[in-house]
Fold this protein.
Amino acid sequence: MTPAFRFGHASARNWRMAAKASLEALEPLPAGANLGFVYFSEHYSGEAEALLGWLVDRTGVRDWVGSVGIGVIATGTEYLEEPALALMVGAFPPDSFQVFSGASMPPRAGARTRSGAHAADFAVVHGDPGSDDMPGLIEDMSHKVESGFLVGGLSSSRMRTLQIANGVLHGGLSGVVFSSDIRVATRLTQGCAPLRAGAGEAPRVHRVTKCERNIIVLLDGRPALDVFREDVGDDLARDLNRAAHLILAGLPIPASDTGDYLVRNLVGIDTRNRLIAIGAPVEPGMPIMFCRRGGAAAREDLQRMLKSIALALGGEPAAGLYYSCLGRGANMFGAKSAEMQMIRDELGNFPMVGFFANGEISHDRLYGYTGVLTLFV
């Protein structure tokens, strides 16, 4: 069964004005509406409890999940660093979802619904970037769902990093688990492209041969900085400060059949000892490649991802959730809402909400500079 959805969004000076405008766009609610998604800018975070209470009272929907964000997303629209709110409600089959947090655990492994479906098949999650070992929490949660698949993002705010999960929460991981009765399609898009020797060539993948914590001493048996300079080319090699802002470390995911990789920042360059440091621990034998971020690479990869998921769907989705990195949006695509408009133009004018995250979650890993799209089909 495909759930029915409605959505609304608005920008206003205060949360009550934004909520009223969003609800007017959302009404009438789908018959049997029982789950809501709410994403709100940090301008409203001080009154998040009042906002949630108002939504429950006005809609009658008791289960809500969501997050604060420096930017809020809706179909064809992004609100970055401005007061805004995006809402979406769905009418899901009974027993097909369960909101969870540290105070309310998801269904136990192997549990079944009355229809015989897996009670915990996949999950939409929101996390606190300040929590210890967030990658470990994500991996642990992935083991609690049958598919092993999570999607979501880390809350982003200059103030309080809040999550919504039938209450206003701070810290850890929360969200909603769906049963296998709910059909979804999900894809990830990168905001950079691996460096290659030439057009049509395979990415230049190196092996760490000596390292300490997050410091790479040798790549392929050679000083790491020498290899880095060769890969980035003469212009960037002469301006390492600029290179450190444009170039990222890509860590290929073992056994990925799509060439997937995690992106981590360069956090240090030691010209005297010819070392580089990245924002993740490394081990001898680990593969690594260098990637260049930029608008052209992001647009190309987003278009590739959208065509891939459109081909798999064969029709317009019922609704969607999108989690984009804070470093994307107009910063990467060159115009406000260009990223969201690409999604709408390729897949249709369906209900979609989300936010600009401080880290994006896909499957069992934490990413950066990516967009994670999930469609209800």
In short: The longest strand covers residues 261-270.
